[in-house]
Structures are given as C-alpha cells and as structure tokens.
Amino acid sequence: MYLCKTLPITASKTKRVLSEAYSFIKEWRGQSRGSRPYVRVNFLKGHQRVFIDDFHYHIEKKELPDRVERFRLLPCVKELLKNTRDEPRITRDGNLMLEGTTPTGDQFAVIIRPEKKGGCLQTFYRVKK
C-alpha cells in the first residue's frame, strides 16, 4: 500500500471541490503529449502509460456526495500512479487494483483496465473501514 505525501482536495464547499477537481484534470491533461492524456507508471513492465481520458465519465454518474468524495482524492491518485512500485492486484473482472493511503489516513483504491499499451484509469474510491 502506497503512502501519499500529497494532500487531497481540502475545500469544504461542494462547488469548490468540483471546480478544483476539474482544474486539476485540465492541468493533468496538459502535462501529457499526444491525443490521449496519460501518466507514466512504474508498476507496469517497461515504464508504460496509464491513460486518463475517460475516468471522470464514470464518476459523474454517481450521486453528488459520492462524486465529491471521489474527486477529493484526485491529487493522491495521480501521485499513486506516478510513484508506486507496488504490484497491482488483479480483480475478478481482470482489471488491476492499486491501494494507497492519504496523509490524513484515509485508504483509497484505484482501478485500471489493462490495454495493449499500458492501461486506462477506470475509477477510484475511498475504502470504507
């Protein structure tokens, strides 16, 4: 389990959390070259990429409180993907699962769908204790 150093989004109002999250996504996309935004990862063989282009469509289908709770984790998810060297677990669907802990002690999971050139970020969520 990876221990993050980056704090999650700490805004208190729902509108502010969503605004910061969308700004973070836009900035994250701008950091990658090519038509599909990605982040290079260390846990896949050959320092491959995890594409980040469609995870938020899944999260936007959730109820507002759940959506806000998930979007708060975005900075931690990015740090986890970039820095972890942990071997991901394989879920029963064949996806890859990574787990991490925020500096505030909250545990979260990240689901990645394997692809030919790496993977695609599917979703992430806080793990209930």
Q: What report would you give on this structure?
A:
Helix 1 crosses helix 3 (64-71). By secondary structure, the protein is of the alpha/beta class. The two termini are 15 Å apart. The protein has one domain (2-126). It has helices at 14-30, 55-59, 64-71, 74-83, and strands at 2-3, 38-40, 49-51, 89-90, 96-101, 107-115, 118-126.
% residues in beta strands: 25-35%
Q: Give the helices and strands as they follow along the chain.
A: EHEEHHHEEEE
Radius of gyration: 14 Å
Provide mean pLDDT, rounded. Answer: 88
> Helix/strand-derived class?
alpha/beta
Low-confidence sequence ranges = none
Number of strands: 7
Number of helices: 4
Please bin the fraction of helical residues. Answer: 25-40%
Number of domains: 1
Shape: globular
Largest sheet, in brief, is: 7 strands, mixed
How far is the first residue's CA from the last residue's CA?
A: 15 Å
List the helices and strands and how they pair.
Layout lengths: L1 E2 L10 H17 L7 E3 L8 E3 L3 H5 L4 H8 L2 H10 L5 E2 L5 E6 L5 E9 L2 E9 L3
Parallel strand pairs: 1-5, 3-7
Antiparallel strand pairs: 2-3, 4-5, 5-6, 6-7
Core attributes:
129 residues
Quick recap:
By secondary structure, the chain is α/β, with parallel strands linked by helices. The protein has helices spanning 14-30, 55-59, 64-71, 74-83, and strands spanning 2-3, 38-40, 49-51, 89-90, 96-101, 107-115, 118-126. The protein contains four helices and seven strands; from the N terminus they run E-H-E-E-H-H-H-E-E-E-E.
